[in-house]
Every structure is written in structure tokens, then in C-alpha cells.
Amino acid sequence: MASNWPSLAHPELHDELHARPPLQVAAPGVLSHWVQHGMSADCAAQALAAVCQHFGAPAPAPGAHHMLLQQDAQAFKYERHGEFVSWQWFHALADVPADPAALRGLWQRAPGLRSLPGALQEIFAQTAAGKLLAATQIMLLPALAGALSPAAWRGGFHIGELIGSHIGEGAATALTDLRLHEQHTTRFLLFDAALSPEQLAREAQRLCEIEAYRMLAMLGFPLAQREAAALGALEARLRNAVDAMAAGSPGDDTPVFNTLTQLAAEVEHIAARTRFRFAATRAYHQLVQRRLAALRETRLPGVQTLTGFLNRRLGPAVALCESTDARLSDVAERINRAVGLARVRVEVHREANNQELLKAMAQRAQMQLRLQQTVEGLSVVAISYYVLGLISYAAKAMLALPALQGLHWKIDVLVGVAALPVVLAVWGFMRRLRRHLST
């Protein structure tokens, strides 16, 4: 195939609106849109290279986040976002049947996943089980006479389940049933009454993004269902712990404190695995609301608008995610308050134990002081006794000397006279020694 595809790679520093324009489409034609969630950069690059090779387009730049390939009858657009990859493929239709009842036959001939390059089909088939999040087909048709009759509205859809409205202030009409059809695609009919080519491209882009962001927002719903059940069991354990703390004495709070810290760890673990998903759900839901507002819908008689349907069906799912997130924050705050209360009670009990311990230590110190004073008194008596014994021995030795044999004194009298001075001297010495050691 001749390589006549001009390529537009996404420049990093260009303005987002100019770097990523909507895919140029025309009526009649079919716009197919696929969203791959969690697709690796290597897998996306491989799929993009297969598309470029199939159409004879230049190879994409390494790490390209955006590529636009445009031709008269076909157009292709690739975008890699933070957590998903989107693909758009437009095919012009050569002829449109004048009979609106023949719209169902158009869907059968519409190019879709089966018309993709073989390498890209294989990559999609490998990832479809867990990563092909949304597939949308938009049939772009001119608003011919009778195209907006009830038969045309329900061509290719389930009767009685039609959703749609006039969009672009009445310049076009969008219809869908938001059901999965062949190749797991969601179908839209977009009748162009008075849109310019740029407006038609933007309206088709908005419809694709509404479906993509709707499915991305719904990723948080099963997670919210699982975590809501886990939070119910956790709240029951929290109530039991608080009841046990309220009914028990402060001395029994240590097991409760351990239980509360375990609950706090579990809540943090739940928050770590859910906060990003719930925040993303809020962001995607806001994007859906903005795209719906940009459609500027006006009601079709007897048909529910896209805004009304999505608010009724998507709103409760997003509300569950938000309520689960708020409930998680509330449980975390309640656990923090309970942990603080348990910590205070444990600390008060510990302080009371410390006071009792200090009191017992003071009593033991007082007893040791008294025992020490008693020992000191006994020490004075013992030392005085030994000193008086030494005086008695000295006196007896002196009487044995020839020079002192003329002295006549009684040893007992001498010891008795010396007893009081010796006791006072020993007591004074011990007191001075105690003062010296205490300073």
C-alpha cells in the first residue's frame, strides 16, 4: 500500500488542545473506538507499529504518546494516557440506504475489530480478557428525510431501550441503547443535520469519551463493594474494642490498645489500595459530566437523554465509591480517637503504677535509713567498747613499768571514767564522717 499517510506525533511541550486534535470524520462513516486499561507501553508500541506497517505509514517515534494518521477514506488515532490506551479508527461509507429500516444492515457491514490488522487483532485478543475496557462504534449518518423516524431510531437497537437526544443545540441527534452488541461494542447513531466538519469530529469524540470515562469510572465500583463488606466487619471489631474499653478497668486496656493498633494498620492498608481508584473514579465521573454538558442536549419525544440515564445509573455507583471512601476516612478517624483514648488510659494506669512503685521505694529507703542509723549507733557502741579495751590494756601495761609501780589506781575506775569521753569522741567522729560522705 502506498505510504501517503501524514503522521502527527505528540510533541511533549505543545499545547494539549493543539497536539491532540479530534479525529477528522465525515458522514456517512463509522468511527470505532477501543480503550485498553493497564496496557503496557511495550505492548502499545508493538500494536501501534503493527498499525503503521499495515497502512504503510512511518514508524512511530519511540515512546510516542500520540499519533494521528489521516487519509481521505480512513483515519487512525492513537493516544496513551496515564492508565489506559485509546485507539480510534474511522472508515467512510460509500453508500447509505435511503430506507431507515436498513440501518441494521449497515451495522453488519461496519468495519470493526475484525477489520484490524492481524497483529493488532492478536494483541487485542491477548489483552481483551482483562484489559479491553470499552469498545464503541458510532455510525455517522446524514439527517436525511425520514432518518429520525421511530423506525430509524430503533434500527440496530433493542426496541423500547433507546437513549438519546438532540445535541449541539439541535444540529445533530445521538441515539444509543448502551448495550453490548457484536464484538462487545456499544453502538451509537449520530445523525448530522447542520454540523460543520470540526463540530462533527468534536461531537463524535465526546461520545467516545463519555463511554470510555463511564467504564473507567466504573472500575471503582466492584472495589467499593468488596471494601464496604470489609469495612463492616472492621467496624464491628472496633465497636467491640470500644465496648470492652468502656466496660473494663484502666488496667485491662493493654489488649484493647493492641487490638486498636491492629485495626489502624488494617485501615491504612485498605486506604493504600483504594484511595487512588476512588480518586480516579471521582475524576472520571467529573469528565463524564463535563462531556455530557458539552453535548448541549435537548430532549427527544419519548426518549430518555444520555444525561438522565447516566445520572440515574452511573450516579449511584459513583456515590457508593464516594461513600465508601468517606466511610473509610470516618473509620480511620474513629480508630485514631479510640487509640488516643486507650493510650491515655494506659498512660494513666502506668503513672498510677509508677506512683505506687515510687511510694514503695520511698518506704524501703526510709527503712534502710532507719536501719543505717541503728547500725551507726551499734557501731559507736562497738568502737567505743574496743577503744575502752585498748585503754584497759594500756593501763595494765603501764602499771607493770618500774617507774609507775608507785601509782595506785584501779583499772576499772580508769576505764569507767574514760567511757563517756570515748563514746562522745567516737560519736562525733562518726557524725563528721557521715557529713563528709553526704556532701
Strand content: 15-25%
Ends: how far apart? Answer: 106 Å
- Let me know the number of strands: 10
Look at the helices and sheets and give the structural class. Answer: alpha+beta
Low-confidence region ranges:
1-19
Order of SSEs:
EHEHEEEHHEHEEEHHHEHH
Described by strand count, sense and barrel closure, the largest sheet is: 10 strands, mixed
Number of H/I helices: 10
Shape: rod-shaped
Strand order of the largest sheet: 1-3-4-5-2-6-9-8-7-10
Our Rg estimate from Cα atoms comes to 47 Å
What is the share of helical residues? 55-70%
Task: Please explain how this structure is put together.
With 439 residues, this protein is α+β, with helices and mostly antiparallel strands. It has ten helices and ten strands. The protein has a ten-stranded mixed sheet, sandwiched between helices. Helix 7 (220-247) packs parallel to helix 9, helix 8 (253-295) runs antiparallel to helix 9 and helix 9 (306-399) runs antiparallel to helix 10 (411-438). The protein starts with 6 loop residues before the first strand and ends with a helix.
Short characterization:
By secondary structure, the chain is of the alpha+beta class. It has helices at residues 16-19, 41-55, 103-109, 118-127, 150-153, 197-217, 220-247, 253-295, 306-399, 411-438, and strands at residues 7-9, 29-37, 66-70, 74-80, 84-92, 132-142, 163-167, 172-180, 186-192, 298-299.
